[in-house]
Amino acid sequence: MPGRLRALNAGVWLLRIFWWTTLIATVGLAVAAFPMLPVDWPAWAAMLAAVVVVESIVFWIGIIAVYLTSVQLGLRIRIIGIVCGWIPIANLVALRLIIRTCREEVRFESDKERLDASRAASRVCATRYPILLVHGVFFRDSKVLNYWGRIPGELECNGAIVYYGGHQSAASVEDAGRELAGRIRRIVGETGCGKVNVIAHSKGGLDMRWAIAREGVGGLVASLTTINTPHRGCGFADYLLAKVPDGARKKIEATYNAAASRLGDTSPDFMAAVRDLTQAGCARINREIGLDPFPGIVCRSVGSRLLRATTGRFPLNFTYPLVKWFDGPNDGLVSRPSFPWGDDFMWIEPAGNRGISHADMIDLNRENIPGFDVREFYVSLVADLKRRGL
């Protein structure tokens, strides 16, 4: 068990000990109060003080441990714990929620560790060609906050060699495609790998289709798997673009481009990216490069559905009902009809009432979702490429 999990598990046990010993001590102090008070109140007060000191030490060590090491608590549960910590009864309910969440995290991650250890020798993700992960719009590849969450680490743990697109956060499909083509040529030229297997999320799928169709890197790509890519655009984006006043649009554009430039983009173009994501923009792109899969390249696509706005994470839980109104079943951003492309299409809609959002598909929030293990899903995608000899 890694150090983080050991610390988290220790914190959970301390909080469980605190829960039960506090309950027992409270009952014991209440029972002792009848014969001891008021005559022997100093002894009773001393027992109370001892209980408070010991329980406080156990609680604070436990709560600090879980707050520092848990991934699954998230901001919401942490805030609930802080706010409810000062409210009698509510603090006990919040503590039970924290313990239950962290205990499940330890169980899930321990099972994941055992699974990876059991198949380490087989290197299920050791594909013939390396994996190139291509991000979507309004993000950049970062070691500090990986766009792909825990996915790259899981792939590498199972034998994969992983590279990143490294392209700008906002640009037209044409410009991003040209940038990605250059990145692929550099990887192949520097490593001698021959080709790459590309997994592209959201707009990254459009960028890669352009790179293959127009930038001459088709011979350097063994496979292209698009994840929740709006191949036919987002009707919701068309609506917003039409409704946002020109002055507000220009202000948003200027603010974003300035921020992106400071973060590393050489020539960010917010509006070019947005226009290419609309239904009209994608229709134009599809007329120019076609929608058919590329000969000699394994072409696959994946899409998912978020079932309820309340189960997603901001901002996609906010946009989900609006996209549903305009486009129907969706992942919080892109509707189902826009996802299918290539020779195979996979639709992700696990049992239950949560569903899987646009951000869930890249593990952006590092959330363990009941019924859908996103890391294992990517392992299965890459393992399939290995079985195909790619």
From TrEMBL:
Presence of the UniProt keyword Lipid biosynthesis in the record: no
Q: Which Gene3D superfamilies match?
A: alpha/beta hydrolase
Q: Which organism is it from?
A: Bifidobacterium vespertilionis
* Membrane-traversing stretches: 12-37, 43-67, 79-99
Q: Which InterPro entries match?
A: AB_hydrolase_fold (IPR029058)
Instruction: Look up keyword Endoplasmic reticulum and say if it applies.
Output: no
Q: Which domain of life is it from?
A: Bacteria
What is the protein name given in its UniProt record?
Answer: Triacylglycerol lipase
**From which lineage does this chain's organism come?**
Bacteria, Bacillati, Actinomycetota, Actinomycetes, Bifidobacteriales
The record, for SUPFAM superfamilies, names:
alpha/beta-Hydrolases
What keywords are assigned to this protein? Membrane, Transmembrane, Transmembrane helix
